[in-house]
Amino acid sequence: MTDTPFGFETLQVHAGARPDPATGARQTPIYQSTAFVFRDADHAAALFNLQEVGYIYSRLTNPTVAVLQERIATLEGGQGAVCCSSGHAAQIMALFPLMGPGLNIVASSRLYGGTITQFSQTIKRFGWSCTFVDFDDLDAVKAAIDDNTRAVFCESIANPGGYITDLDAIAAIANDAQIPLIVDNTSASPYLCRPIEHGATLVVHSTTKYMTGNGTVTGGAIVDSGNFNWTASGKFPSLSEPEPAYHGLKFHETFGPLAFTFHSIAIGLRDLGMTMNPQGAHYTLMGLETLSLRMDKHVANAMEVAQWLENDPRIEKVTYAGLPSSPYASRVPQICPKGAGALFTFAIKGGYEACVKLVDSVELFSHVANLGDARSLIIHSASTTHRQLTPEQQEAAGAAPNVVRVSIGTENAADIIADLDQALAKATA
Ligand SMILES: *Cc1c(COP(=O)(O)O)cnc(C)c1O
C-alpha cells in the first residue's frame, strides 16, 4: 500500500468493505438478520452504553448497511454517515437533532417537488416551519435567517431545472449565523459535487437515484462533515446538553466530530425507525461500484441531447447548466467541475397539451416519477410531481406547465435523440 490517498474510482469499489472475517467472502454479504448475539452481559451493556461499537438490532445498525454508510461518508469526504429508508427520511433525520417546536429552516425555493411539500406542509405538524427564498439573492437569504433558524437547506444541482447553487456563498452566510448548511446532493452525486469542500455541514441523499443507479430500491443517507461546533452557539441542546432521550448523554462532548452520526443512530433511527434494510443496502453498494463510470456517460449524453434540443425549432428553451447559454454555466467549474449532471428541463412550443402528448409518445424514454436511472426518463412535472404546488410555486421551482423534465440515461446518445425527435414530431403536429 502507498501513502497516496486513493482516487474516487478506487474508493467507490472498496471503501468500507473488507473480506468477510468469518467466511472470506469477497463481496459484502447481505446480513439478513434482525438481531445480533451478545458475547455476554457486559458486552450487551457496553453496546447499549455506546462505549463499544457493534451490532444490537437492525433498526439501529446492520453490518451490510454499515459498509454502505462508510462508503458514502468516504466518497463525500465526511466523518460519518447514516443510511435510512428514503431520501425524504434522510431530510427528516437531518433536521431532527437540530429542531424543536417553534424553530425554522431557510430553504431554497428551487427544490425537488416532494421536498417543497414536506417542508411547507408536513413539518408544521412537528411545530417546525420553513421560509423559502431565492438562493441567488444572498441578501434575501441573510434576511430570512432569524434567531429561531436552525439550518439552511438547498440542493447542489437543483431538481428539476438543473439550477446550480453557489454553495460557497450560502455556506458563508450559514457560518456567520452559526447554523449548519444542509445540501441535498442527490442530483449531482459525490462524483460531480462534494458539498463539504464548499462548506456544507451535512449532506443528504436520496440513494434511490444515481447512487443505486438502476431504479431498484429507495434509500437515503445523511453525511456529517464533522466540522460543525454544536456547542458554541447554544442553539443545539440535543447535541450539546445532556440528552434526556439517552439517559443524559452529551453527544458532542462524548463523540466530538461523530456527535451527529451517533445521535442519528442512537436516537434518530431508534425512535423514528426510518431504517434502511440490508437487501436495499446491497443494491446500492452494487450501484456505487460504477458511479463514476455512469456519471461520466450521463453527463456526456446530457450534453449531446441538450445541444440537439437547443437547436431544434420546436423547443423554446433548455435549462441545462452544461450549455454555455445557461445563466449557471459559470458555476459549473466551481461547483461541479466534472459536469452539470444529467437532469434538466426543456420548454416546448405548444404548452401543456404538447407536453402531455410528448410523454405519451416516447418509446425509449420511460414516463416515470424518478430520476438517476440508467434508463432515460421523462416526466411532465406540472401534471405530476409538482401538481400539489401553486402556479407561482411551479414557476419558481422551474416546473411551469410548458416544461418537461428529463433524466438522461446511459443509453446510446443517438438513440435517445431519435426517440425525442419522433415524439416531438407527434407532440407538435
Ligand atoms: C428523489 C429525491 C428526493 C426524495 O428521495 P426519495 O428516495 O424518493 O424519498 C429528495 N431530493 C431529491 C433531489 C430527489 O431527487
UniProtKB/TrEMBL annotation:
Presence of keyword Cell membrane: no
CC cofactor: pyridoxal 5'-phosphate
Residues modified to N6-(pyridoxal phosphate)lysine: 209
Pfam families: Cys_Met_Meta_PP
GO molecular function: cysteine synthase activity; O-acetylhomoserine aminocarboxypropyltransferase activity; pyridoxal phosphate binding
Keywords, ordered alphabetically: Pyridoxal phosphate, Transferase
Domain of life: Bacteria
Any single GO BP term: cysteine biosynthetic process from serine
InterPro entries with a match to the protein in the record: Cys/Met-Metab_PyrdxlP-dep_enz, OAc-hSer/O-AcSer_sulfhydrylase, PyrdxlP-dep_Trfase, PyrdxlP-dep_Trfase_major, PyrdxlP-dep_Trfase_small
SUPFAM superfamilies noted in UniProt: PLP-dependent transferases
Keyword tRNA-binding carried by entry: no
EC number, as in UniProt: 2.5.1.49
NCBIfam families noted in UniProt: OAH_OAS_sulfhy (TIGR01326)
Homology family: Belongs to the trans-sulfuration enzymes family.
Protein name listed in UniProt: O-acetylhomoserine aminocarboxypropyltransferase
UniProt organism field: Actibacterium mucosum KCTC 23349
